[in-house]
Fold this protein.
Amino acid sequence: VSTPRPAPAARPPLGATVAYLLAVAGVAAGITLTFLGMRAVMDIGGYCAEGGPYVIETSCPEGVPLLMTLGILGGVVAAFVAAAAGSRLGGSWSSLLLLAWPALFGALGWNFLEYGFNPPGDEPGWAWGWLICGVVFWVMAFGPLVFVVMGVRASAGSPTSAGGARRLRAGASRAPEPDRRPRPSAAEAEPGELFAMAMPDPGSLDVESPQGPPDLVDGLERLAALRSGGELSADEYAAAKQALIRDAGSSQ
Amino acid sequence: VTAGWRRVLALLTLAACVAGVVFGGWLYGLLT
């Protein structure tokens, strides 16, 4: 009597899906509010103030303090909600939220660069302070993306990855052969290969079990040491060497 | 989750991003 295997979930859970999509929209709205609020502040010189006991030289544009607060805090809360709901969807849906980082810093960096090249007011020239901020923000935004691309490219060649598994299945009719290609040096390697080079070669991790055949190279080296030490005659050495090679060949 | 649903979810996520940007712009225009 065979019991039917439970079928995999055909579609994602509705509640988690709705929560995830709403929260993703909330993150996008938060970034948009922050982006627009920052532009409004930069239009009036880059700083403003509201409230407090002091005389304020530059008041903030109406509604901007509230909207920027809402954008930043709401965006953070929405990101947490989206990450939690995404984890219920499985896969890498919550990891997708990491793209909010380059989106946020890319957008704000754009503001710094745009206003840095065309600062408000009558003074000619560039606003170097903003340009530097823009460059720093873009490095923060897009630097991690470079590592993501490198990681994806490196894992695409791994047998454990989906792409690598497909390639293995495609060539499953013949026995897998060890990769005998020479590993490239760091200077000539592509970025993705640098990750692979940092990791140990999977073949080098193969360990013979204690019951397995003795390592042929070790055996030969021991024999050569005995021969050079004079403990084996030339005939004994040749016979032992032949036996060792024969044993190693028959055990594979 | 099947591959078809993953595609649907990816499209919905993209649509949610666009909707969020539009909503944020609308809210900004409303309150400023």
User: Anything to note?
Assistant: Helices of chain A lie at 14-43, 64-89, 100-117, 128-156, 162-170, 191-198, 216-228, 234-251. The radius of gyration of chain A is 32 Å. The interface with chain B takes residues 8-12, 17, 20-22, 24-33, 36-37, 40, 61-64, 66-67, 71, 89-91, 93, 96 of chain A (CB under 8 Å). Confidence is low (pLDDT under 50) at residues 171-176, 190-210 of chain A.
